Automatic annotation (TrEMBL):
Keywords: Cell outer membrane, Ion transport, Iron, Iron transport, Membrane, Signal, TonB box, Transmembrane, Transmembrane beta strand, Transport
Source species of the chain: Niveispirillum lacus
Residue intervals of the TonB-dependent receptor-like beta-barrel domain: 275-680
Bilayer topology annotation: Multi-pass membrane protein
Protein name (Swiss-Prot/TrEMBL): TonB-dependent receptor
Major localisation: membrane
Keyword Transferase tagged: no
Length: 740
C-alpha cells in the first residue's frame, strides 16, 4: 500500500535528484581518478572481486556510513545490494535476510535460515546473534547463490559477511557523534595502533545509540510509552605477527534495552492494502506490556602459520546471547479496539541460556600458483534454551497462563576442499566438495500454572549431505572476465514446537513439526568488466535455481502457531546488474538492479489461512489455501538502488553531497495470498550534505533518511485481526566526525 505520491513518481524524483547532481558537475573534465580495486574474501582468499567466479555484491564504507546514519539497524541494508532483502517483525534484533527470494519468515528463536551470516569469519547461527550492530566496518560482502563448499550448511541462498577494520601498526582512529529526530543520540569511535613495534597491535571500537520513546499509549494515557532504545556495543582486537606465525584475537559484546516492535490492531483496511484512517506511527491503544532486552558476548581467535608456502589456519569462535522480548500481539484491547479485537493476546519469548562453539582448521597453498588448493575440517556445536510465555489467566489477567521450555542441541562436523587450476592463461577451472554431518536433539515441556501436570514432546534428527560447486572463468581481456558456475546447496533439517496455544496432550502428534533437508541446484553465468580506462565497472549475472523439498514456515493463522512444511519443489530465476561510474571529476555514481522470479511447485501443498477475516485470493478448500504457483514470502521481483556523490573542492577541504535511493517491488508476507497481507512497491531515499577537511581531521554533515516520507507496510500478523507493521518515519540529524 502507499500513501501520498505513488512510488513510481518517487522513483522518478530519485532519478531526477541523481541527474541534478550530475548536471552540477564541472563542464571541464580534468584528470580523473579510477575506480578502486575491491578485494573480497568470498573464496576465503583475498582476491579481486572482478576475478572471483561468484556473484558478489559489496557495500563500501562511505555508502554504509550514509545508509546507517542516525543509529538505524541492519534493516537499512535491505535493497542496497541487488537481490538482497532484509526484514524483521522484531525491533533492533532478529533481522531476516533473503537472497534471490530465498529466506525464512519464521519468528521462532531457534529457527534456521537459508542465508548464512558471518561476522569476522565466524558464523552467527542463532537469529538473535544476527542483530549485532555495524560499526568500524571495512566492508560488507553479499555472496549470492549456494556457498556450501566453503561456508557449509544453511547457505543455499548465499552468505552475508561483515568484515571489521583490523588493527595496524599505524596509530589512528576516529570519533563520530550525531543527534537527530526523536532525541536520538549516537556516538561511534575507534582507536588503534602498535603496542609492540612490528609485532603486536590493537584496535578498540565502540558504538552507542539512544532514542527516546515517542509512541503514546492512548489506552493507559501514558505518554512516550514505547519506540525507544538504548544500545551499547564494543569490539577489541589484538593482532600479533612475528615470523611465520600470525594471530588475531577478537572479543566483542552488545547490550540493548528498549521496546519491541509495536503491533497495531486493524491497521489494514479489510479488502484492501491501505492503512486505516486511524493508524498513527506515534500512538497505540493497548493493554499489554512491551519490552526488549538483548545481551550478547563473543570472542574468536584466528591463528595462521606459514609452513614455507603452505598455510595452516585455525579459527575458533564462541558466541552467547541472552534475550527477552514481550509484546501485545493482538495490537489492541479486547472488545474495545481499535476495530474488532476478539480477545487479548500477550506473549513473551526468552533465550536465557545459549552457547555456540565453532572450530575451523584449514590448509591452503600460496596465492599466485597455477594450481591453488585449500581443504579442512569444521565443527559446530550449539546449545540453546528458549522460553515461551502466554499471559492472562483466570486469577490474574497479567499473570502467566502457559509456559513452555524448549531445549535444542545441534552438532555438526564437515570435511571440505576446493581447488582452482589455470588451464591456460585465460581459462581457470574451480571445483569444490564438502561433506556435512548434523545431529539435532530437541525437547519441549509445557506447563499451565494452576493446572496439575505438564505436557512434553521432543525429536531427534540426523542427516548427512554432500555439497559441491564447479565453475569456469575466462579472461576475455585484461579488464573483462566471464564466468559460469554450477553449485548445489543444502539447508539442514529443522525441528519446531511452539505449543503456547495448543491445549491437547500430545505435543509430538499435534504441535511439533519437522522439515526434512532442503536441497537445490543453482546455475549461473556472468560477466565482470572494468571499462572506460577503469572509470566504469559493470557486472551482470543471470541465474536459475531448482529447489527440492523446500522448507517453509506456515506462520500465524487462526492458531497463531508456527508449522514447518516442505514443498515438493520451487524455482527461481533472474539476473543482477551492478554499475559504478566516474563520469566526470569529483562525481561518483553507483547503481544496482535485480529481477527475481520465484514460484512454489507443489500442487498438493495447502495451509490454514488467517484467523481475522482477511480476503484470501488463493483457492481455498475447507479453510486451507492452495499454494501451488505462489511466489515465495518476502521475495520482491525487482530491487533497484542508486547513489551519487559529488564533491566541490574548497580551500582546505571539500563540500559534498551524497544521495542514495532504493526501490523494491511488491512483497507478499505469507505463503498464501490475500488483498491485505502484502506490501506494495516502495522507494526510500536518503540525503547527506557535508564538509570534510583535506586531512579528514574534521567533518560535519546534515542527513536525512526516508526524505520523501514513504509509508509502507513492512509486515503483518494474521492471527485474529488485521495487524500491521510499517516502515520507519522520516529521520533527520546532524553529524560531527573527527579522524586522527
Amino acid at each position: 500500500m502507499r500513501t501520498g505520491n505513488p512510488s513510481f513518481t518517487r522513483l522518478l524524483a530519485g532519478a531526477a535528484s541523481l541527474m541534478a547532481l550530475s548536471v552540477a558537475a564541472p563542464a571541464t573534465v580534468q584528470a580523473q581518478a579510477v575506480l578502486d580495486e575491491i578485494i573480497v574474501t568470498a573464496t576465503k582468499r583475498a582476491e579481486n572481486q572482478q576475478q572471483v567466479p561468484i556473484s558478489v555484491g559489496t557495500v563500501a564504507p562511505e555508502k554504509l556510513d550514509a545508509v546507517m546514519s542516525g543509529g538505524v539497524d541492519l534493516l537499512a541494508l535491505s535493497a542496497q545490494v541487488p537481490s538482497l532483502y532484509v526484514e524483521s517483525t522484531f525491533s533492533r534484533t532478529f533481522p531476516r535476510f533473503y537472497i534471490r527470494g530465498l529466506g525464512n519468515s519464521d519468528f521462532d528463536l531457534t529457527s534456521t535460515q537459508p542465508v548464512g551470516l558471518v561476522i569476522d569469519e565466524v558464523v552467527q547461527e542463532n537469529p538473535m546473534l544476527r542483530g549485532f550492530p555495524l560499526f568500524d566496518v571495512e566492508r560488507v560482502e553479499v555472496l549470492r547463490g549456494p556457498q556450501g563448499t566453503l561456508f557449509g550448511r544453511n547457505t543455499p541462498a548465499g552468505t552475508v559477511s561483515f568484515i571489521s577494520k583490523k588493527p595496524t601498526q599505524e596509530t589512528e582512529g576516529y570519533l563520530t557523534a550525531s543527534y537527530g529526530s526523536k532525541n536520538t543520540i549516537g556516538a561511534e569511535g575507534a582507536i588503534g595502533g602498535a603496542l609492540v613495534d612490528g609485532i603486536l597491535s590493537a584496535r578498540l571500537s565502540m558504538k552507542y545509540d539512544r532514542k527516546d520513546d515517542f509512541i503514546d499509549n492512548t489506552f493507559t494515557g501514558e505518554k512516550n510509552a514505547a519506540g525507544g532504545h538504548n544500545e551499547v556495543a564494543a569490539r577489541l582486537q589484538l593482532a600479533y605477527e612475528k615470523g611465520p606465525l600470525s594471530a588475531l584475537f577478537n572479543v566483542h559484546a552488545r547490550d540493548l534495552d528498549g521496546t519491541a516492535r509495536v503491533f497495531v490492531a486493524n491497521a489494514i483496511k479489510k479488502g484492501s492494502n491501505d492503512l486505516s484512517s486511524t493508524f498513527s506511527r506515534n500512538s497505540v491503544f493497548q493493554n499489554g506490556q512491551n519490552a526488549l532486552s538483548v545481551s550478547s558476548q563473543g570472542g574468536s581467535l584466528k591463528l595462521e602459520y606459514d609452513f614455507d608456502g603452505v598455510m595452516l589456519t585455525s579459527i575458533t569462535g564462541f558466541e552467547t546471547v541472552d534475550v527477552y522480548t514481550r509484546g501485545d500481539i493482538d495490537g489492541g484491547v479486547a472488545g474495545r479496539g481499535p476495530g474488532f479485537v476478539p480477545f487479548d493476546s500477550e506473549t513473551a519469548d526468552a533465550v536465557p541460556d545459549h552457547a555456540q562453539w565453532t572450530q575451523e582448521l584449514r590448509l591452503s597453498n600460496a596465492d599466485g600458483e597455477r594450481f591453488r588448493w585449500q581443504g579442512g575440517l569444521f565443527y559446530f556445536n550449539e546449545d540453546v534454551t528458549a522460553y515461551g510465555y502466554a499471559y492472562g489467566n483466570a486469577a490474574d489477567p497479567r499473570g502467566i497462563a502457559i509456559f513452555t521450555d524448549s531445549q535444542q542441541e545441534t552438532k555438526t562436523w564437515a570435511l571440505f576442499g576446493q581447488a582452482s587450476y589455470d588451464l591456460t592463461e585465460q581459462v581457470t577451472l574451480t571445483g569444490g566438495l564438502r561433506y556435512n554431518d548434523e545431529e539435532k536433539d530437541f525437547a519441549v515441556i509445557r506447563t499451565m500454572p494452576g493446572v496439575p501436570g505438564s505436557t512434553t514432546g521432543g525429536a531427534e534428527l540426523s542427516d548427512g549431505q554432500v555439497t559441491w560447486d564447479l565453475s569456469l572463468t575466462y579472461k576475455a581481456t585484461d579488464d573483462v572476465n566471464l564466468f559460469a558456475r554450477v553449485a548445489n546447496g543444502y539447508r539442514a533439517p529443522s525441528i519446531q514446537s511452539r505449543p503456547l496455544f495448543y491445549f491437547g496432550n500430545n505435543i509430538n502428534r499435534d504441535a511439533l513439526s519437522i522439515a526434512k533437508a532442503e536441497t537445490l541446484m543453482s546455475y549461473e553465468a556472468g560477466v565482470k568488466s572494468d571499462l572506460w580506462e577503469r572509470k566504469a565497472r559493470l557486472n551482470v549475472t543471470a541465474f536459475y535455481t531448482d529447489i527440492e523439498d523446500q522448507q517453509f514456515t506456515a506462520v500465524g493463522g487462526a492458531s497463531n502457531n508456527n508449522t514447518l512444511i516442505n514443498a515438493k519443489g520451487g524455482e527461481g530465476y533472474g539476473f543482477e546488474a551492478e554499475l559504478e561510474l566516474l563520469p566526470v571529476e569529483n562525481l561518483m555514481l553507483t547503481g544496482g538492479l535485480s529481477y527475481n522470479h520465484t514460484e512454489i511447485k507443489d500442487s498438493t501443498l495447502r495451509i490454514p489461512v488467517c484467523g481475522g477475516g482477511c480476503t484470501v485470493t488463493d483457492p481455498v478448500v475447507n479453510g486451507f489455501a492452495q499454494l501451488d504457483g505462489n511466489s515465495f514470502p518476502n521475495a520482491p521481483k525487482w530491487i533497484f538502488s542508486a547513489s551519487a556523490r559529488y564533491g566541490i573542492p574548497v580551500e582546505g577541504g571539500e563540500i559534498y553531497a551524497f544521495t542514495d535511493w532504493n526501490y523494491r517491488s511488491k512483497v507478499n508476507f505469507f505463503l498464501y495470498t490475500s488483498r491485505e497481507f502484502y506490501s506494495d512497491s516502495k522507494l526510500e531515499g536518503g540525503l547527506k550534505l557535508g564538509y570534510v577537511s583535506d586531512d579528514e581531521k574534521l567533518g560535519v554533515a546534515i542527513f536525512g533518511r526516508n526524505i520523501t516520507n514513504e509509508k509502507s507496510l513492512e509486515g503483518a500478523i494474521d492471527f485474529n485481526n488485521l495487524t500491521g507493521i510499517v516502515n520507519q518515519a522520516p529521520f533527520y540529524g546532524v553529524e560531527l566526525t573527527s579522524k586522527f
